[in-house]
Design goal:
Layout lengths: L1 H27 L4 E4 L4 E4 H23 L3 H7 L4
Antiparallel strand pairs: 1-2
Helix pairs in contact: 1-2
Length: about 80
């Protein structure tokens, strides 16, 4: 069960990383606002980068927390005995 959760967290981290790189690239090229014309939404690029970075860090911390409960890690550090 914990392995499936860990794999899902890794996939979520990969999915969040791609828009983070995309938004950071736009911000570094000088775009201050990203417009979504079909939705009528304007998003500040620094805010988007900050939100995606916090989400990425949160997912990575959750995955690191789940690694502690893998049986292999418990055997390696002799914690379960």
């Amino acid at each position: 069960m914990i392995q499936a959760l860990l794999v899902i967290l890794y996939l979520i981290a990969a999915v969040v990383l791609l828009p983070l790189i995309w938004a950071l690239g736009f911000w570094l090229k000088g775009a201050d606002i990203i417009a979504l014309p079909g939705l009528g939404i304007l998003i500040a690029t620094p805010l988007l980068v900050a939100v995606l970075a916090v989400a990425e860090i949160g997912v990575i911390f959750c995955a690191a927390y789940c690694v502690r409960y893998l049986p292999l890690v418990r055997m390696l550090f002799d914690e379960g005995a």
